[in-house]
Write a structure and sequence with these properties.
Strand order of the largest sheet: 4-1-5-12-6
Radius of gyration: 27 Å
CATH superfamily of the largest domain: Periplasmic binding protein-like II
Number of helices: 10
Shape: globular
Low-confidence stretches: 1-21
Order of helices and strands: HEHEEEHEHEEEHEEHEEHHEHEEHE
Mean pLDDT: 90
Helix content: 25-40%
Number of domains: 3
Distance between the termini: 57 Å
Structural class: alpha/beta
CATH architecture of the largest domain: 3-Layer(aba) Sandwich
Strand content: 25-35%
Length: 314
């Protein structure tokens, strides 16, 4: 090849990445919540098979998937950045989508919270000794909250006129000295009880949700990538509080086993070299395992193994 042809070849090759982007150049930018949900979210991704590193030092932590870029942001902001296209997708509370009136695609609800698997709640709260017993009793009163939009729409729907002010935090300490009531978020109610506060009404319940921008949803590659991530995240959630059980079991007692222990739904039964025995494997709730393992032993099971699960995908 002469020099002229070598030059043309190099020019042509330099254009190939633009026409045929490499896998490393394809990126899905996802926003994950910092703050109270960060630890649980990173743990969920770990169960799903993704390792996120540096979350405590940077808002751009690394993840062991070259096709994903992670941004750590306040949950309150994520839906706005997804809607505006700065993020392709993200995990945030359904409450903040409503608060921000964000026009995003909700792909899936993710049933996890800071301390439990129960949803968080936005509640209307007053001091324990307050004379206020109902929403109507707050007519003309002052309310403090971080979720001004949620509170305003609630009181408008209730037909009760109140003065709502934005709270920058520590909302529970503002009653009764600064305001008459607050609208605050709670998961277990422990902090409210510790501050001698009483719930008057629940405005809404909220779980984290996986959201996408309309542009990312319309992109075939990004849509598929988000689907793969969600499959693994949902599998990790479905494996929560479950364990696997495997054992060798006398073939003659197999029917008794299935009739006696209905919790062993659709176990996998495999024949062994010794025809009088079968291998049985199943998935059960962890709290059930401690109850049925002694029963399995009494029915003749041997070599019982209990093992943890990262993902269960149906």
């Amino acid at each position: 090849m002469n020099r002229e042809n070598q030059y043309v070849g190099r020019l042509t090759d330099s254009r190939l990445p633009d026409k045929y982007p490499s896998m490393q150049e394809r990126k899905l930018t996802i926003g994950l919540p910092s703050g109270s949900l960060m630890e649980q979210t990173i743990a969920l991704f770990s169960k799903a098979g993704f390792t996120i590193s540096g979350a405590n030092r940077s808002y751009k932590p690394t993840i062991d998937d070259p096709e994903i870029e992670v941004r750590l942001l306040r949950a309150q902001e994520i839906s706005r950045y997804v809607e505006q296209g700065f993020l392709d997708c993200g995990i945030t509370g359904r409450d903040w989508i409503e608060e921000n009136h964000s026009d995003v695609v909700i792909r899936e609800q993710l049933a996890y919270s800071k301390a439990t698997s129960a949803p968080t709640r936005w509640v209307l709260v007053v001091p324990e000794n307050s004379s206020i017993q109902s929403v109507a009793d707050l007519e003309g009163k002052r309310i403090a909250t971080e979720a001004v939009g949620i509170a305003r729409r609630f009181f408008e729907k209730s037909g009760v006129k109140v003065d709502i002010e934005f709270s920058w935090g520590a909302t529970e300490v503002k009653v009764p000295d600064l305001v008459d009531a607050i609208v605050d978020i709670t998961e277990t109610g422990t902090s409210l009880r510790a501050n001698k506060l009483r719930i008057v009404e629940t405005l809404m319940e909220s779980y984290p949700v996986f959201i996408a921008s309309k542009e990312a949803e319309a992109d075939a590659w990004k849509h598929k990538k988000m689907g793969h991530i969600l499959l693994l995240l949902m599998g990790a959630l479905q494996a929560r509080n479950k364990v696997g059980l495997k054992m060798n079991f006398p073939n003659k007692n197999l029917k008794i086993l299935l009739e006696t222990l209905p919790s062993l739904r659709k176990p996998t039964v495999s024949h062994l070299a010794h025809q009088e025995w079968v291998a049985v494997e199943t998935v059960v709730d962890e709290k059930i395992a401690r109850e049925i393992i002694p029963q399995l032993k009494e029915l003749g099971a041997e070599g019982i193994i209990e093992y943890p699960l990262n993902k269960v995908i149906y």
